[in-house]
Every structure is written in structure tokens, then in C-alpha cells.
């Protein structure tokens, strides 16, 4: 019966088209991730993709190691030397690109200096140009200092409680310093584009599983199905199992292929670097590595998919409508985006299931929750809340469909 349910889903022309759409999405997102890595040659011209990654790796690996005060001083010295070159001071764009090509090896460390010395809410690409070698050693201290000043500023004085402010400061202070650095652009590209592919996978899979329960009703075969010996027990379990296996197989096949394609093209080095070693994660209060960030992104996406699509299947079993079921993933994903500008809803929005599909983004946000005097970020709550709801939902789906009345 399980194989029969899978065959019913996959034999439809619309389902095959949906799978082609998912494969196309996989290839397009992988291409965007790979070509997001660019390299400027010594003549000022630029390339992107695999060849760019190879050249960029050679430059960045020269700076592999811990970002100590000596390394930071060296970055200031190298940056100043490039700034004093005729190419940098020229009004010609090609000359400027030539000058930039000499900064690519330490560009990530340069950005960390910009972030630390620009202030918490500000960013100035040229801030490093005015930081002295004596000042730059304060980089890690500036990160904590900037956070503290921002938390106690009039601008957000009522946004966080005192306990939440102290929690953030303590987490910032827990970051292991000096940070370890090496080429890690493969992991950064993965993290940047993974949420997009996860959402597309959920939407396509949602379309596929939405018809599992309403199928007999749409074919007017419900009277035969529910009057059969196993229709209300094994048949229902087979439908639930088919939906679960289809979700699992499509999700992990898609995401593992994406991971393999991108890391094979851009390189898998740097997974051990802290998330704070790149511009997107500098402010994160989660002290984890890029590899751990991506692992949480994959697991979170899977947990989110199971909940959203299981809820979709429950709705289809109750309403007997594939249209309503297939529309649910769109509602779950896009309604929070519309409401995101309403500040009073920020706490609630931070715990909606769509957040699980973009954990790499959540890790870089300040969504905090206080339970019984314990302050924590949104990530651990999301990883507990929705797997529990998913497990509780399965018996509900079984009960609703097995008790369906024949009309």
C-alpha cells in the first residue's frame, strides 16, 4: 500500500513537472552560489566561479592562522601600502581594480576591522583606512564595547530587558579569541543561498504531498476505499508514511546535491572558522563554526519542512482539498515577510515555522526569549518546539482521515 501511494503521487504529469522545476531550481541556486565568488586579477579584470575560487584560495590562505594583534597590524600596514600606490589614487577604474586585487588576500580581515571600528549599527567600507596600527589591537574589545553602547543607547533602551542585555554581553565575551581564519568562501556561499533552495524545496514538495489524502475523494472512490478491510487503518498509515518518505527523500537529495556541487566547486576548507570571521556573522551571539551553522541550517530546514508539510497534509485530510493544502506553504513562508515591519509582532514572528527554513539568518539576528528567568536565543526554542508539534500532529492526521465520513 505504501508503494501504491508513492506511485499515485509520482505517476501524475503535474508531479513530474514539479520535480523538473525542483531540479531546475537546484541547478540555478547552485550556479548562483558558485558564481557569487569573484576574483580580481592583477590586470584589473574579474572572473567568477571555480577559477575565481582557486585564485582566491591561494591569496587568502597566505593569511591562514589566528587573527592576533600582530596579524591585524600587518593588515593595516598592507592596506596602507596599497592605498599609497598610484593605482589606488588613480581616477581610472581599471587602476582601482588593480589596487583592489592586492587586498583580496586579507579582505575578510579588513572587513572585520571595518565592522569593529564603525560602530554597532554603522558600516564604513573605508573605516580601516583611518585605523592605526596601535588602535587595531582593540578589535575584539571594540566588538563587545559597541554592543554594550548600543544596548544602553536611547535608541533601543526598551527593546531588551536587563537580563537579555547581560545575556548578549556575556555571549559576546564568551567568543574564543583570537579568531582562527582561513579561506572559507565555499561555506559562506552555501549559507547565503541555502535558505532560498530550502524554501523552494518545501513549496515543490508541498505541491506533491497535498494530493495524497484528497485523492480518493477527487476520484469519487472514497466509498470503496473506506469500506475496504484496511482502508481506515493500514491505508491511512501508508498515506502518512508516503508523505513522510517523499518529504525526506526530496529534501535530503536536493540539499546534499547542492552541498556537494558547491563545495566541490568552491572548496570545503574553512568549516572550522567561527561564524564571526565573515561580514554576515560578525554580530552573531551564537559561538559556533561555519560548519555548525550550516549543519543547523540543514537540520532546521528539514524540521521546518516536516512540520509545514505535515500540517498541510492534516489540512488536506480534514478539508479533502488539495488546493488549500498546497497553498499553506505559501502562506507560512510569505505572510511573515509582510508582517515583519510590525515591531510589536517581532517576538511572535521570530518563532514561526518559516524561521526554521532560514536558520543561517536567524543565527545572525537578536531574537531573544526569557523562560523562567532563563534567557535564550530563538534557535534552541525552534529546534524543540516544531519537532514536538510534528510528532503530536501525526496521530491527529491519522485520526481525522480514518474517521472520515463517506458522503
Automatic annotation (TrEMBL):
Protein's UniProt name: ABC transporter permease
Lineage: Bacteria, Bacillati, Bacillota, Clostridia, Eubacteriales
Superkingdom field: Bacteria
Membrane-spanning residues: 17-39, 197-219, 240-261, 294-315, 327-348, 368-401
PANTHER family on file: INTEGRAL MEMBRANE PROTEIN-RELATED, MEMBRANE PROTEIN
Keywords: Membrane, Transmembrane, Transmembrane helix
Amino acid at each position: 500500500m505504501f508503494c501504491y501511494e508513492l506511485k499515485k503521487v509520482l505517476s501524475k504529469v503535474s508531479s513530474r513537472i514539479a520535480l523538473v522545476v525542483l531540479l531546475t531550481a537546484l541547478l540555478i541556486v547552485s550556479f548562483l552560489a558558485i558564481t557569487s565568488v569573484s576574483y580580481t586579477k592583477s590586470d584589473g579584470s574579474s572572473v567568477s566561479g571555480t577559477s575565481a575560487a582557486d585564485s582566491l584560495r591561494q591569496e587568502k590562505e597566505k593569511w591562514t592562522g589566528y587573527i592576533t594583534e600582530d596579524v591585524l597590524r600587518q593588515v593595516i600596514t598592507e592596506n596602507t601600502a596599497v592605498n599609497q600606490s598610484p593605482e589606488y589614487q588613480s581616477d581610472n577604474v581599471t587602476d582601482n581594480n588593480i589596487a583592489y586585487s592586492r587586498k583580496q588576500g586579507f579582505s575578510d580581515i579588513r572587513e572585520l576591522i571595518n565592522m569593529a571600528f564603525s560602530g554597532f549599527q554603522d558600516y564604513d567600507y573605508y573605516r580601516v583606512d583611518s585605523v592605526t596600527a596601535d588602535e587595531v589591537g582593540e578589535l575584539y574589545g571594540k566588538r563587545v564595547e559597541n554592543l554594550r553602547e548600543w544596548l544602553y543607547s536611547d535608541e533601543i533602551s526598551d527593546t531588551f530587558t536587563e537580563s537579555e542585555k547581560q545575556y548578549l554581553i556575556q555571549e559576546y565575551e564568551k567568543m574564543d579569541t583570537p579568531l582562527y581564519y582561513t579561506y572559507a568562501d565555499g561555506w559562506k556561499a552555501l549559507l547565503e543561498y541555502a535558505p532560498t533552495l530550502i524554501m523552494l524545496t518545501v513549496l515543490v514538495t508541498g505541491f506533491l504531498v497535498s494530493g495524497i489524502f484528497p485523492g480518493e475523494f477527487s476520484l469519487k472512490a472514497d466509498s470503496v476505499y473506506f469500506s475496504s478491510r484496511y482502508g481506515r487503518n493500514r491505508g491511512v498509515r501508508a498515506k502518512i508514511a508516503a508523505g513522510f518518505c517523499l518529504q525526506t527523500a526530496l529534501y535530503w537529495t536536493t540539499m546534499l546535491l547542492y552541498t556537494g556541487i558547491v563545495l566541490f566547486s568552491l572548496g570545503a576548507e574553512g568549516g572550522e572558522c567561527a561564524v564571526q570571521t565573515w561580514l554576515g556573522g560578525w554580530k552573531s551571539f551564537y559561538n559556533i563554526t561555519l560548519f555548525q551553522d550550516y549543519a543547523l541550517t540543514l537540520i532546521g530546514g528539514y524540521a521546518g519542512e516536516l512540520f509545514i508539510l505535515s500540517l498541510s497534509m492534516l489540512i488536506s485530510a480534514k478539508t479533502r482539498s488539495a488546493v488549500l493544502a498546497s497553498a499553506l506553504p505559501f502562506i507560512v513562508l510569505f505572510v511573515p515577510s509582510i508582517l515583519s515591519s510590525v515591531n510589536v509582532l517581532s517576538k511572535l514572528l521570530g518563532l514561526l515555522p518559516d524561521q526554521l527554513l532560514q536558520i543561517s539568518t536567524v543565527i545572525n539576528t537578536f531574537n531573544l526569549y526569557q523562560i523562567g528567568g532563563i534567557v535564550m536565543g530563538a534557535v534552541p526554542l525552534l529546534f524543540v518546539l516544531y519537532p514536538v508539534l510534528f510528532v503530536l500532529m501525526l496521530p491527529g492526521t491519522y485520526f481525522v482521515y480514518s474517521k472520515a465520513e463517506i458522503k
